[in-house]
Amino acid sequence: MLPRSAPVTLIDAEGSPHADDQYRMPDADRLSAAYAALVAGRRINDQCNALVRQGRLAVYPSSNGQEACQVAAALALGDGDWLFPTYRDSVAIITRGVTASGALVLLRGDWHSGYDPHEFRVAPQATPLATQLLHAVGFAHAAKLRGEDTVVLAMCGDGATSEGDFHEAMNFAAVFRLPVVFFVQNNEFAISVPLSRQTAAPSLAHKAIGYGMPGQRVDGNDVAALLAVLDEAVDRARSGDGPSLIEAHTYRMLAHTNADDDTRYRERDAVEAWADRDPIVRVRAYLREQGRLDDALETEVAEASEQVAGELRAAMNADADLDPEQLFSHVFAERPAQLDAQWAHLHDELDRTEAAS
Ligand SMILES: Cc1ncc(C[n+]2csc(CCOP(=O)(O)OP(=O)(O)O)c2C)c(N)n1
Ligand SMILES: [Mg+2]
């Protein structure tokens, strides 16, 4: 049950294969698909970072540098399985098949999810930390009671592991042997709080033992290792052996969101050191070495990513059709006097705007 002392790695930072006696290298077709998704994921992250500066997205918690975790989480699941993502997991949602513009509707500021969770088997992105873990566990419990073979993969960050909801979710899932994979992206920060101020445990994966489930640590910038480790946890869940906790060691390359200034709490050198461990560079080097990737295919992958980014730009640059009255919908069954006054104020303003135009 104990996690390894060092994270599982199958492709090292130079792109060379790293032998492991427990985990096998995923086949080249799967890694090629992962590479294409990684390149698209990076392009989407960069596009969203630009859109937020242009005022077209309200906020963007990017996964720059964490794309291997995003891609592997989506690719490790079968079609009928469910993903429970956080605010930082837009790329995982898109890799699962949701259109980029649909996935970004929430972060644009809309009050509804931009996709049908049942169509893609992806829950809406959760912003209150660790709440999605409880939803995931409840969902898995229901699936088990119904005799379905659904596996649920629930994502969270290192900071979220300090929440009470994390504890409740882990304990319930283990006691009832539920088909859940808890997937922690340890990017070393919870906004400005470093991991050293978050936990005194030897690793986040070690927390699994106390609940009675296996924990494993994996290099979060190695998509091959992530796929192999997540595959094993998904198989275990599906075969009725219960939940697992996987901790991916990665790094948040940008600030928490556009609203954060990370120069106030971390050194540039630390960030730059992680640039050498970029998740795209190493799988690209490996696939090239294997003769599975050449200039033509790289161009094809880059062009496909440009197309996704272009479609996203076009969708986000179109003004949303907003109804200001929705601000008042479903808040109170009977509107109190204070909101009545605000309602009247809004209508007065709308009438005057209309009269002036
Ligand atoms: C219950 C709750 N408390 C506090 C917050 C404010 N908050 C938003 S993100 C964040 C940090 C989370 O860090 P981590 O879990 O490591 O995820 P990351 O952002 O690094 O992906 C905090 C404290 C919140 N969203 N929900
Ligand atoms: Mg974090």
Automatic annotation (TrEMBL):
It comes from Leucobacter tardus. CDD domains: TPP_E1_PDC_ADC_BCADC (cd02000). GO terms for biological process: branched-chain amino acid catabolic process. Keywords: Oxidoreductase, Pyruvate, Thiamine pyrophosphate. This is Pyruvate dehydrogenase (Acetyl-transferring) E1 component subunit alpha. Residues 40-309 form the Dehydrogenase E1 component domain. InterPro entries: Alpha-ketoacid_DH_E1_comp, DH_E1, PdhA/BkdA, THDP-binding. SUPFAM superfamilies: Thiamin diphosphate-binding fold (THDP-binding). It comes from the Bacteria. Its cofactor is thiamine diphosphate. Pfam families: E1_dh. Signal peptide: none annotated. GO terms for molecular function: magnesium ion binding; oxidoreductase activity, acting on the aldehyde or oxo group of donors, disulfide as acceptor.
